[in-house]
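pasting for the record
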Amino acid sequence: YLVNNVFRAVLVDRKGDKPAQDNILEPLESVLAAKHSLIFFPEGTRGNGEELGQFKSGLYHLAKKYPDVEVVPIYLENLNRVLPK
């Protein structure tokens, strides 16, 4: 309920089972094209909350395609306590 109705989460299939010609960022691009906001975890996952993981390239590609969208880096402390995985 929370994912669909409160947070309106957009999930990205990053398992690699899609054909190479499919744009896995299309769901996120649709959100930005509709002028809505995204909370984006650039590591591709929420992680353990203890250390920063390696960033995936999706954020770069979205920022390049939508240069007018403001990118605001933030730090969410205790996210696992407030919003567990």
